[in-house]
Amino acid sequence: MLKAGVLGAGHLGKIHLRLLNQSDKYELVGFYDADETNAKNVEAEFGYKYFNSIDALIEAVDMVDIVTPTLSHYDCALKAIANGKHVFIEKPITNTVEEAEDIRELLAKHNLRGQVGHVERFNPAFIGVKDQIINPMFIETHRLAEFNPRGTDVPVVLDLMIHDIDIILSVVNSKVKHVSASGVSVISETPDIANARIEFENGCVANLTASRISLKNMRKSRFFQKDAYISVDFLEKKCEVVKMKDAPENPGDFDMILQNAEGIKKQIYFDNPQISNNNAILDELETFAHAINTNTTPVVTLNDGTEALRVATQIINCFNQK
């Protein structure tokens, strides 16, 4: 088993600690947290070993799981890589694209593995339909959350929208051509609600909305492509595929048939993909262990995390220009 250590024992860090502790892919060695009072409380409550320095923890493990505030991701990753350790980094990968590129280059130089915690890639609803998302030409996403002070130190783009940016980049096989966006700060010092439009070189357009001041929670994405409409509900873990095919000459009484202005008839049919319940965070951590053990490419690479941050940064820059 790989020896794992966690940097950061906040809300998400405690979840990572619990899952690593129960995983048969890892041996949880312990954790470090800058808040000594919190760290000792976590150690007392859960029994995980608390290391009183980052260096001591890194030295004792094979893999470092970085679940600290984004501003510290870069320094933590540099320490881990310098000591020859594989790194799992929560999203967003770092605070700047330049920092992300540094980490990516250093990992490659030291022949180490790295993965970014874009957990929605492991959402069972997305897994159930991702193979059917083929060359989408219009994508619409809504990620709305009720207000929570945790996370408001960064724009809503880095807090919420970046999940959808990563999903979109993973299914659109084309380079980003143009980004436009607008955002409004309602409660926080940075935008709490934002809308972005991403245009790709192949003609695909993605329209993204994210809010952390909504009255209800929503995480839905819709993908439109030739002869198909695909809906993914990341929150409810449900998905729906609506397809069209040439209508039969003699349709049945219950067949749904549409006819366009040119007289072409299409039959609409529904596909309900199989969804397997899973723990997405556990899956992302365990697939990373597999990538380390087999020397293969992680599901969400540092390049993926860097490109998601690059687009997110372009969106934030649009706010600053207004």
TrEMBL record:
Pfam families for this protein: GFO_IDH_MocA (PF01408), GFO_IDH_MocA_C3 (PF22725)
InterPro entries per record: Gfo/Idh/MocA-like_OxRdtase_N, Gfo/Idh/MocA_Oxidoreductases, GFO_IDH_MocA-like_dom, NAD(P)-bd_dom_sf
Boundaries of every Gfo/Idh/MocA-like oxidoreductase N-terminal domain copy: 3-118
Every GFO/IDH/MocA-like oxidoreductase domain range: 156-216
GO molecular function: nucleotide binding
Record protein name field: Gfo/Idh/MocA family oxidoreductase
UniProt source species: Pontimicrobium aquaticum
